[in-house]
Specification:
Low-confidence stretches: none
Main location: cytoplasm
Strand content: 25-35%
Subcellular location: Cytoplasm
Protein name: Dihydrolipoyl dehydrogenase
Number of strands: 23
Bound molecules: nicotinamide-adenine-dinucleotide
Cofactor: FAD
Distance between the termini: 86 Å
Mean pLDDT: 96
Number of helices: 13
Radius of gyration: 24 Å
Catalytic activity: N(6)-[(R)-dihydrolipoyl]-L-lysyl-[protein] + NAD(+) = N(6)-[(R)-lipoyl]-L-lysyl-[protein] + NADH + H(+)
Length: 473
């Protein structure tokens, strides 16, 4: 039995950030990982997906290059090079994280961990050794994996999850995406830009159903414009695997329909595996398959914390896991954590990009909050015109009585980079006036944020004026 101050299980963006924070706070930390450092986000999620999307964006731009006065006679996609590029990016970032862990004196144990009462952490190491750590505190950060719904035929050779799409980056002429959530629309967007015939089947009435209605609807229009077929209210019933392709059978508006494709991506959510983490009768209170935690990420078992996808309640996002890792370790070290865990930006790296933070207008109304919405159409934004982007908007939702910003939704160039300043405004309780009161450089996409903030009170300079009363002098 080896004594440790802190054992963190899982080295994804939750676990490795928790370990680094522990080192900063002077807590000696052992980090256990059964696969690669960086977890899903770095190895099979956010990072390689964004690399593939970046390749798709470059190809889409190359096809449009003549519009900008650049002649590219024949642009084509080398899918194995797209995959190699994604793997190279992943490798570089992973090396960086491993160096950071080593430089901070964090002990990295490679193996499969199970947690037992004590708390004890029992590790079956990759070299076959069994090690048992008795820890003062344990942080569980084991993430999630793609969930396959109970649909017949999903075991066929042409059916993939995001894991398979990223390890292969297959060259396909046609792709059916089951699920119009974040993963589904990101792959649909990339493959539409690569020139594949893409069909998205979403069971609910719109794409990205958890976000503001206008975001999913506008994205559907943008995808359709690039040749995608988007079917909402489409519930997939079965996949038939045939020699020359797979056929997806779905139900829509009371009719049974079929669509054939070279490959099928299943993107219908992710699941957590709590059961195989618990040994010797350890029982962690769970809710819908995820571990119940309090505001300081404490589970029902003393000295055991859970963060990231496996912790119930939070959004399953890498940056949430990292923030929770910092909050959990701060609680362990008994120091205050200044991060506002309630204000979480969500980003979708589709073309066009989408981001959202705080409340939508509909959510504010449901909560009985009267709001004013400032909306700026990015067609009036210089950088948007320069980049040749046609659709886009930024919406800011502010409380009607005092002007405090409570939400924002963006669909425009670099939306994923712009959402940060609106998240800051929300987390710090700023009014739209206060958030608008800095000079934004010209020409930038960011100017649109300023305009949307000003539009809350009808004062956006680059929007057509609403009917004004004559001002007498
Ligand atoms: P999701 O829950 O976001 O979306 C799944 C979609 O599939 C839902 O809209 C659901 O209605 C639909 N669906 C379910 N069963 C269906 C069926 N039988 N037929 C048709 N549609 C069906 O899940 P996801 O897209 O797999 O993403 C998983 C998690 O990973 C999410 O929490 C997401 O936020 C996170 N993620 C985030 C990013 C990012 O931040 N950019 C990227 C990838 C994943």
């Amino acid at each position: 039995m080896e004594q440790r101050e802190l054992v963190v299980v899982g080295a994804g963006p939750g676990g490795y950030v928790a370990a680094l924070k522990a080192a900063q706070l002077g807590i000696s930390c052992t980090l256990v990982e059964r696969a690669e450092v960086g977890g899903t986000c770095l190895n099979r999620g956010c990072v390689p997906t964004k690399s593939v999307l970046h390749s798709a964006e470059i190809f889409a731009q190359a096809k449009e290059a003549a519009l900008f006065g650049v002649r590219i006679p024949e642009a084509s996609v080398d899918f194995s090079a797209v995959r190699d590029r994604a793997q190279e990016v992943v490798g570089r970032i992973r090396d960086g994280v491993e160096s950071l862990l080593a430089a901070n004196g964090i002990e990295l144990v490679r193996g499969e961990a199970r947690i037992a009462p004590g708390p004890l952490v029992k590790v079956t190491c990759q070299d076959g050794d069994e090690r048992v750590f008795s820890a003062h505190d344990v942080v569980i950060a084991t993430g999630s994996e793609p969930a396959l719904p109970p649909i017949q035929g999903l075991d066929g050779p042409r059916v993939m999850t995001s894991d398979g799409m990223l390890s292969d980056v297959p060259c396909v002429g046609s792709l059916v995406v089951i699920g119009g959530g974040v993963i589904g629309v990101e792959f649909a967007s990339a493959y539409a830009d690569f020139g594949a015939a893409v069909t998205v089947l979403e069971a609910l009435p719109r794409l990205l159903p958890t976000l503001d209605r206008e975001l999913g609807q506008s994205l559907a229009l943008a995808l359709k414009k690039r040749g995608c077929t988007v079917c909402t209210n489409a519930l997939v019933r079965e996949v038939r695997n045939e020699t020359d392709g797979a056929v997806v059978v779905y139900e829509s508006k009371g009719e049974v329909r079929e669509v054939r494709a070279d490959a099928i991506l299943v993107a219908t959510g992710r699941r957590c595996d709590v059961a195989s983490l618990c040994a010797d009768g350890l029982e962690l209170a769970c809710e819908q398959g995820r571990i119940v935690v309090d505001g300081q990420l404490r589970t029902s078992v003393p000295h055991v914390y859970a963060i990231g996808d496996i912790a119930a309640g939070g959004l399953q996002l890498a940056h949430v896991a990292s923030a929770q890792g910092i909050a959990a370790v701060s609680a362990i070290a008994n120091v205050p954590c200044e991060i506002d865990l309630a204000c979480v930006p969500s980003c979708v790296y589709s073309n066009p990009e989408i981001s959202s933070v705080g409340m939508s207008e509909a959510e504010a109304k449901e909560s009985g909050i009267e709001v004013q919405v400032g909306k700026y159409l990015m067609t009036g934004n210089g950088k948007t015109v320069i980049a040749g982007m046609d659709r886009g908007f930024i919406k800011v939702v502010a409380r009607a009585d005092d002007g405090v910003v409570v939400g924002a939704q963006l669909l425009c160039g670099r939306a994923t980079d712009l959402v940060g300043e609106l998240a800051l405004a929300i987390a710090r309780g700023m009014t739209a006036d206060e958030a608008a009161s800095v000079i934004r450089a010209h020409p930038t996409f960011e100017e649109g944020v300023g305009e949307a903030l000003e539009a809350v009170f009808g004062c956006a300079v680059h929007s057509l004026p609403k009917a004004r009363k004559a001002v007498s002098r």
